[in-house]
Hints:
Number of strands: 36
Helix content: 25-40%
CATH architecture of the domain at 8-402: 6 Propeller
Largest sheet: 6 strands, mixed
Radius of gyration: 31 Å
Strand content: 15-25%
CATH topology of the domain at 8-402: Neuraminidase
Distance between the termini: 49 Å
Oligomer: single chain
Amino acid sequence: MMHRVVPLLGWLGIVLCAVPETAGQGYAPGEAAARMTAAPGFSVNVFAAEPDVRQCILVKHDDRGRLWVIQYLQYPNPAGLKRVEVDRYSRTIYDRVPEPPPKGPKGADRITILEDTDGDGQADRFKDFVSDLNLSTSLAFGYGGVFVMQAPYLLFYPDRNRDDVPDGDPEVLLSGFGMEDAQAMANHLTWGPDGWLYGLNGSTTTCRVRGVEFQQGVWRYHPRTREFELFCEGGGNIYGLTFDDDGQLFYSSNGTRPAWHGVQGAYYHKQFEKHGELHNPYTFGYFQFVPHENYRGGHVTCGGSFYYGDTFPPRFRGSYIAANLLAHDVYWFRFSSLGSTFRCRREGELLLTNDTWSAPVDLTVGPDGAVYVADFYDKRTAHPDPDAEWDRTNGRVYRIQAAGAKPKPHVDLNALSSDQLVDRLGDANRWYAGVARRLLAERRDASVVGRLRTTALETKDDHLALEAVWALSAAGEIDDAAAERLLGHRSAAVRYWTVRLEGDRRGVSSRIQPRLVDLAAKDPSPVVRSQLASTAKRLPPDHGLPIVWQLAQRSEDREDLYIPLLLWWAVETKAGSDRAAVLEMFTRRTAWDVEIVREVILPRLVKRYAMERTPESLSACSKLLTAAPADADRRKLLDHVNAGLGGKQLGAPPADFLAEVRRFGDPATAVDPAVLQLALVCGSAAAHDRAIQLALNPKFPTQERVIMVDLLAQFGKPSCIVPLLTLLVLEEQHDVEIAALRTLSRFDDDRVLQKILQEYPRYSDKLKRLCRQALFGRPAWALAFLHAVDRKQFDAQAVAVEELRVLEVFENEEIDELVVKHWGRVSRGTPEEKLADIRRYNNDLRAAPGDAAAGKAVFKEHCAKCHKMFGEGETIGPDLTTANRKDRDYLLTSLVDPSSYIRVEYLSAQVVTTDGRILQGLVTEQNENTVTLVNSSAEKTVIARGDVDEIYPSQISQMAEDVLKPLTPQQLRDLFAFLGSDEPAKSP
Length: 988
């Protein structure tokens, strides 16, 4: 029934590449650098460029200060594999899992070492460390070799003699990383200060590593113990991982956000519409990106790093510098504390490339204090077709340095003694400290342990103490005596890390556990308390739950952005495996006196047990309800019980649970929708009759009647059809009519069809449109409507072409013939026709300038019903403020053919029900019990999972294709002037 449509963007890319004037390079490297605008007091130069390096995606300095680059030349398709299946999101299933190199297919990627031998700021020596790689995305140095990320593998190339030639074939350390999309592979291997090797994974690849399944998130691997774990989950299509001076983790991603603050064991927003829910179904919440202000640029921020070099002006120290791929620029941000997390503000531009071909994707701070920027450099930066011809001749690395900075001598930290490495831990340029720390972790030299312990416990330099703690931990030299003293350190960062490192052992001693509980009760730092919550999640219940209990008493954390949910997640990990311990703690009478417990933990706990739907979990629900001190408290939990049960009828609930249901009242006389819903879930016939009774009662408030009708949409039996049909004639109760239509359309019953057709002529335009949506959900109903149009009973002109396109999925010859007869061809135009439209619009745009203020009025009339820009408009479609608005070709193509590329969060779906009905809209929520759709009219439909046969990604955008047709050429120019503006235009 469903057919894959080749996106016009990809097709158009092929056409554009065939046109001579667009096939060549943009600016030559030197000219490109000359056109750039560096911030005042800075200079930028080409450090390396094609043909020496091409399609650069990662830059990183080794122990000798040399810059290593990954040339991503195999992108976007792996070598040697055949595509078996490609879905709507371009996720690809291949015919096999490739063998690791060198036995697997040989690709074109290479890892190249760049060296500046004469100190002039330009690379003059180039050497490949390894070539023939196949979509390799990251590397890290250490332990006598180089760690390399090439999905599905994390590899280790030994080079113990350091001659820049691998000693042999790579060792496979991990396998199972997803490879469905070359734009979302595992990436950015980065050493954490704790000695773990951290990495990211993007949004459209699914990893299954050692039994852990995830998509987007932060993972880590320990080189000594070989442990692997998911550090935190979520964040979008993420690329760029870094740590600040206190060891806090941040990562970059797409979306209108500079960064995410990664906390151990936390869950973050995902593109749920595309990837489904978080892998833990009981998270009941997630963290958002770092709150920010003064954002600018496109919606892809990547490769971010904190500046702790020693040549930039002091105001840049500790700033976050990141590339903005779609803005083609490099920005810098300032982070500041916000409770246990951070807020940030864009402070300005470090580099404006003034070049739409520039594609900065990664950056790093070098031992010389300069910032090195990897520029993929390509005409296309927005989701190209993988089958398009690809120009792989370009690529640059730029070097941004403060004016007057002097060259530094070449270094080789590996040649230093362990004592000299300890000296480097306090270096103002943190690059030296980071490399020294990693080398100390490798060596585990007992001769410096005493010095490190003394430094950690006695130095007055708090950051140096923290460095010593990290080094001691990596050496395995923090015993209980040292940990106890460090937990009382004056530095919050030292206390934070001591808590975290103790928790990483998955258990703590009887000496340390009371200290953690005491810290939970008394520590003044929300950062420390946040880590205590994360650590409590990792510890067994007898160690973790007392920490949770003390942290929950800290009322000052109720409004913290992180701590309340971290406490819930710590409880949730024990709610199933250690149910008795959890219930003992949270059925205490005093639990209801604690705000975080009452408002955050208990509602989620009762919902979690309800979702589990086992006799044991429902009995746990009843215990929590029984423990509520007052009826009002029990009622507060009721909504969460219903949410957990999800509108799906229970089979045989246990007696104690049914007793609690009866305590809420007799369903035959109830008026509370929540009470009726719970009774309906338990199979109460009296509740079903009562819902019908209240829905029909004209004296009952309109919105309450709507709720009752909606309950019947979930639990209604065929016996409700006849009474609900009477609601389709309530002219004065429009909302009730709409709800009745929504509920009745569930039933494939001819009485419903005939009543809709009978009432259709007198309905308002809005209700007529909703009727058509209901009728077009079933082929027989759609035919009945089309025959009425054919008999001239209904006006064909009132039906929009976009509505009719959904009928194509039925592949019904009679339907298709009637549509053509009355509306002509309604399918999307051919690529040739759309390309002709684009050329015509381009001619209009070139003819004269546009006026942004006048364009704002055009936007308000034609676009703002679905899109927001500069804070004005609606959010049915993407916010255009941070879209790729400077690329006119991309923008024009998106407007002429909106179905050619749809951002994942706005991809609509077609849901086929078990009785053959088809519904279309955005999937705004889905769980194991229901799927929620919102259509282009913002109408919400909740479908029980049991009624869903299949869910298909829709090939059709909810945006109309002819949005530009009503515009005059001048209005078109005005609109594009407004869309391309940097600041809000004043209304004319």
